[in-house]
Amino acid sequence: SVGEARTAYDLMQMMEPDAREARDEERKRKQWTVDLQNALKDGKEDVTYARVMFIGPSGVGKSSLLRGLMGMELEAANSTVLADTYLLKNTWAKTDFSSKWCNVTEDDEIHELAVLLHKTKKQGFETSSLVNPCPTPVRVRHRVLQVSSRSDIPEAQSSASHTVAVSNLKKKRKRSVHLESPNRDSEFLGKAKGIQNFVLSEVVKKACILSESENFQVTDSTPEVLLHVWDCGGQPVYLDALQPFLSSHTMFFLLYNAADGLDSLVKSVWLEEGEKTEHGNLEVTVLDQLQQWMAAIHASLFMKENVLSCTAEALPPYPRIMLAGTHGDLLEEDNCKQVLDTLESQYEGKAFSKLLVDSIILDNTKAGEVDDKPFMKVRETVQKFSSENLTVKTPVAWVLFRKILSKAKSSPIVTFKEVLAVAKSCKIQEEVVPSVLSFYHELGVFLYYPDVQELSKVVFVDPQ
Fold first, then answer.
1. How many CB atoms lie within 10 A of CB 132?
2. Helix axes 106-123, 182-211, angle to 10 degrees
3. Which H/E stretch holds residue 69?
4. Which end of the chain has the lower number of beta carbons within 10 A, N or C?
C-alpha cells in the first residue's frame, strides 16, 4: 500500500549515511563488474606497446644509458650476458620529453586496464568477434642469417666459448620442454585463477575511483607508451644468437665508444662490481661492427616479413635504428661532428640506411640530468616511433591475458596447454591464441616458436 511504501522510504532515510554509501558503492561495483566482463568479451581499445633494444659490446655504456633515461645517476654495472630485460613506461607529457622513464608497477598495470574499461564503456563495445589486431595474420618465422655472406660486410667473429654456450642452451631447452604433469597444471592454474580474481577486483575498484575523480577524463588521446626494454650484448658472437629476437616492433639503439674512434678495434672487456678487466681487442673495427649489426637487423626483418628480395617497400615504411656513441665527455665538439659525418658517409647508399633514424653522441656522466638534450632526444625518438607506428586497437582481453600470464609464472617456461587455460579464462577463443602469442612475441614480452617442433608446445614467459 502507499502507507507501507512511505514507511519504507522513511526508514531508508533514517539509515546511517555510511550504510547508504555502502549500498551505493556496492551497486556501482556490481555495474562495473558487468561492464568489465563485457569489455573482456567484446572490447577493443588503442594500446601502444614497443620494444627497445640497446645493443653494444661490453663496457660501452648500455646499462648506464638506460639508467640515464630513467633519471638515475651513473654507477658501476656488471657486463651484460646476452640480454637483460625490463618493463618500463615513459611518463612524459605529450610535448615534454625531459621526464624520466620508470619501472611499471602493479598499480600502473591495474590503472591501464581501468582506463581501457572506461574507454570501452564510453564508446560502446565492439560486436565483432575478437581477432588479431594486426591487419594481416601474424606468423612468426625465425631463421639464422649468415651476415658474412654479404660481400660488403666484414665476416662475423666466432669463438669456442660461443659454441659451448649454444650447445648448453640447446641441452637446457631439450630438458625444459618436458613440463607437463597433473600437479604442475593444477598448481599453475590455481595460481593464475587467484591472480586473475585479484586483478579483476582491483580493476573494478580503480574504475569506481576514476569515475568519481574530477581530474579524470575519458579521452580518445594517444595511450601511454609501455616499453619492453632489452639490454643486449653486441659482441660479434651474439650476431647469430640475437637474430631470432629482432622484430619490426622494435626501436634499436646500436651503441659504440665514440672516444675510441671508428677505425679502432673493438675492445674485449668485462665489468663486474665496478672492476674492469680487459681481454685484448676483437678482430673487428668499431665501424665494421656497426655495419654488421645494421645489416643483420635489415636482413632479419626482411626475412621475417617473408620477402625474397630486399626492396625499400618490403618493410613497414618507418626507420627504427639510432646509432648512439658514448663517452662523449672525452671528445671535443669538433671531434663529435667528425665522427657523425664519417658515419653518415659510410652508410649512405647502403640498403640498411633506410632504417636509420639518426646518429647521436651521448655523455653518460650526465645520467640523471633529465634536461640533458641528447637524453631528451632519445626519449623523443622512442616516443615518436612508438606512438606513430605501434599504436594498435587491441582486445582488452589480450591486455588482461598478458598480465595474468606474466604474474602466474613459477618458471620461465609454461606449456601451451596452460596458456590455453589462461586464455579461456580471459574470454579469448582457442583459435586466436597463436595470434595473441605472436603479437606479444614481436614485442619481446613472451617468446613463442610455432615453427620449431621442439618448442611449439611451450611458451617462454620470461625472456630473461
1. 18
2. 60
3. helix 62-69
4. N
